[in-house]
Design brief:
single chain; alpha/beta
Length: 302
């Protein structure tokens, strides 16, 4: 099951808040592919795809399914998979235009691209997919902290960041990512759509929006929909059903005990699962001074 085509290495092509790159060493300990019985992989909260690309780099599997409710994100993945050369040409032109500008002209250019992106979000059609993907990658590489945030109307509203020489078009990685994604099923929709794919031969990794551990830590919205405690409970019930089908499941989330030792929310909703606490560097509120080592949860049924 190990990947023989290891000369092609791909990493996430987007920066993503809550990305799992720093937890890969912990997460890979749960990979159940070595014995050959697990031949499928599902990741229904795709985000930046750090775990997906790690799996693609290391293993050759029969089928891989990924999904997300963020339509812009899914469009970007589909474009990388299906139209990477057109995408590279578009991003290369943006990089040539943007990088030589001074700060004031960069801000003007950035705002124009942000407005165009939001216009396509509202009125775009199928033919605008590559442009929309290029704009998303451009904004991701040039906005503040690589943050994806939308307002209540669903419009991207992150200001420009301060990068001296941002790499807007990483040609080699985009081409490698396209190769890796070639046979991956990419779906726009919520995690429940994965039910028909996930069976006893599947390892499924669920990385939902984290439960806030402080009153101020939920300031970032990746989509217009909030993932509250009721939705966390619904996911746990869904995971229980998949467990009964024989699938291998791993779920990540925040650890409420970082701030409240008596908060047993996840112990209760995942009562029949194993919970492992691992260290991660996160911001525990919107004040950058509060960034530090905290605990996160890796919840498994095996």
């Amino acid at each position: 099951m190990e990947n023989k085509n290891s000369n092609i290495y791909a990493k996430p092509f987007l920066k993503w808040a809550g990305g799992k790159s720093q937890l890969i060493k912990e997460i890979e300990c749960f990979y159940p592919f070595k014995d050959g019985n697990i031949t499928k992989y599902a990741e229904p909260f795709l985000g930046g795809g750090a775990v997906l690309f790690d799996v693609l780099n290391k293993f050759e599997l029969d089928e891989i399914y990924v999904s997300d409710t963020n339509g812009d994100l899914i469009n970007a993945y589909c474009t990388v998979r299906d139209d990477v050369e057109y995408l590279i040409n578009t991003l290369t032109e943006m990089q040539k235009q943007f990088v030589p500008l001074n700060t004031e002209l960069r801000k003007k250019y950035y705002i124009e691209k942000r407005e165009r992106f939001n216009l396509l979000k509202k009125y775009g059609d199928f033919d605008s997919g590559v442009e929309r993907a290029a704009l998303m990658i451009f904004l991701n590489k040039t906005c503040f902290n690589g943050l994806y945030r939308v307002n209540k109307n669903g419009f991207f509203n992150v200001p420009m960041g301060s990068y001296k020489n941002p790499i807007i078009c990483d040609e080699k990685n985009l081409r490698n990512a396209a190769q890796k994604l070639k046979n991956v099923t990419i779906v726009m929709g919520d995690y429940k759509k994965s039910e028909g794919f996930i069976d006893k031969n599947t390892f499924a990794y669920f990385d939902p929006p984290y439960r806030p551990i402080t009153d101020t830590s939920s300031f970032t919205s990746y989509t217009e929909n909030l993932f509250d405690d009721r939705k966390q409970e619904e996911l746990a019930h869904f995971v229980d059903n998949l467990s009964r089908k024989g699938a291998k499941i791993l779920v990540s989330n925040s650890d409420p005990k970082n701030t409240n030792q008596n908060d047993d929310f996840f112990e209760q909703i995942y009562i029949s699962h194993n919970i492992k606490r691992v260290g991660a560097n996160r911001m525990i509120n919107c004040n950058g001074q509060s960034r530090g080592k905290i605990k996160e949860l890796l919840i498994s049924n095996f």
